[in-house]
Write a structure and sequence with these properties.
The structure is a single chain. This protein has about 325 residues and is an all-beta fold. It has a domain of about 200 residues: Methylamine Dehydrogenase, Chain H, CATH 2.130.10.10. It is about 0% helix and about 50% strand. It is built from no helices and 28 strands. It is globular and about 50 Å long. About 50% of the residues are buried. The N terminus is likely disordered.
Length: about 325
């Protein structure tokens, strides 16, 4: 049986180098999607490669996609609402991406992170002092502008400047994803199938909970909810972050994986059937409102609040699906 971290505010320290590694399970993964049996809804725009991370930048009104190029490096692809997309090559591999919604995105890499000016297609690499050999696997940005990085060896680093680590918390098997609500960071550890909140100081874990049978992805929505796909357990998990509490668990069949939160609906993709569903969470019990057929392998989702457009990004290079008026209320 999986044993969770089980941290209270007074029981976790910033260093646990002498502690045994936490017990783990085989991490869950997206299902391998079958060939399409119906055309995807909306319009499909081409994109190369196998995207790792996507987000929508409101300032430039662009979908931003992070993926590997044909070598070991990464590329950021910028897709404006109108016109052709453009590629912004990065000088090395990148593992995850976050944005400030003001025209900049940040991509974690070995020893630091990249800062990409979306409009100018300009890239700057930032090294984190003293951590040049660290394999950073996740990145998020807090409300106060501080970046939080996660690593392959299970640590969370909260920066106090562009290059300086102010706090380190090493209690995880691996940091697979990071999101923030305010100045609280939330950690997803797939091999422990757990979610954990880290306080504003960055040095203490506030609460930790098991996340189903095999959690894979995590997102936040405008209402302050933390959304988690339990891919192995076929469920959507909805957490409150302050304090961390499981508020809803709803069955979603067919290997749920991609997630996005909008003001009205929560979006979940089903990777074993090439579908995406929009749920209304307002009543406390998710209610299905819309359902669309998707591109093959719908691993990543993003939503543009201004236009009501849902983006579904294939994990196998089958393109970016653009569904306008996705919520069906405009």
């Amino acid at each position: 049986m999986l044993v969770l971290i089980g941290c209270a505010v007074t029981s976790c320290t910033s260093k646990t180098d002498d502690a045994p590694p936490p017990p783990t399970i085989a991490p869950a993964e997206a299902a391998v999607s079958p060939p399409l049996n119906k055309p995807p809804a909306g319009v499909v725009r081409p994109i190369a490669g196998h995207p790792k991370s996507v987000l929508f930048d409101a300032t430039t009104a662009s979908l931003v996609v992070l993926g590997p190029d044909e070598t070991d490096r990464a590329v950021v692809t910028v897709l404006p609402a109108n016109g052709r997309g453009r590629d912004v090559p990065l000088p090395a591999a990148a593992t995850a991406m976050t944005g400030d919604d003001r025209g900049r995105v940040y991509a974690s890499t070995h020893g630091g992170y990249f800062v990409v000016d979306v409009a100018a297609s300009r890239v700057n690499r930032v090294s984190v002092d003293g951590y040049e050999g660290t394999e950073f696997t996740a990145i998020a940005r807090r409300a106060d502008g501080r970046l939080v990085l996660g690593s392959a060896d299970g640590a969370v680093y909260t920066l106090t400047s562009d290059t300086t680590v102010g706090a380190e918390l090493k209690i995880f098997a691996r940091v697979d994803a990071l999101v923030t609500q305010g100045n609280t960071a939330v950690v997803l550890d797939r091999s422990q199938t757990s979610v954990t909140t880290v306080d504003a100081s960055g040095s203490k874990a506030e609460h930790a909970l098991r996340a189903g049978e095999g959690a894979t992805t995590m997102a936040v929505d405008p209402a302050g909810r933390v959304l988690v796909a339990d891919t192995r357990g076929d469920a959507l998990l909805v957490f409150g972050a302050d304090p961390l509490m499981l508020r809803q668990r709803y069955p979603v069949r067919d290997a749920p994986y991609g997630l996005a939160g909008s003001a009205r609906l929560t979006w979940v993709s089903q990777t074993s059937t090439n579908m995406v569903i929009g749920y209304d969470l307002a009543t406390g019990i998710p209610v299905e409102k819309v359902r669309y057929s998707t591109v093959q392998q719908p691993n990543s989702l993003a939503f543009d609040e201004a236009s009501g457009t849902l983006y579904v990004v294939s994990g196998t290079g089958a393109g970016v699906q653009v569904i306008t008026n996705a919520e069906g209320v405009r």
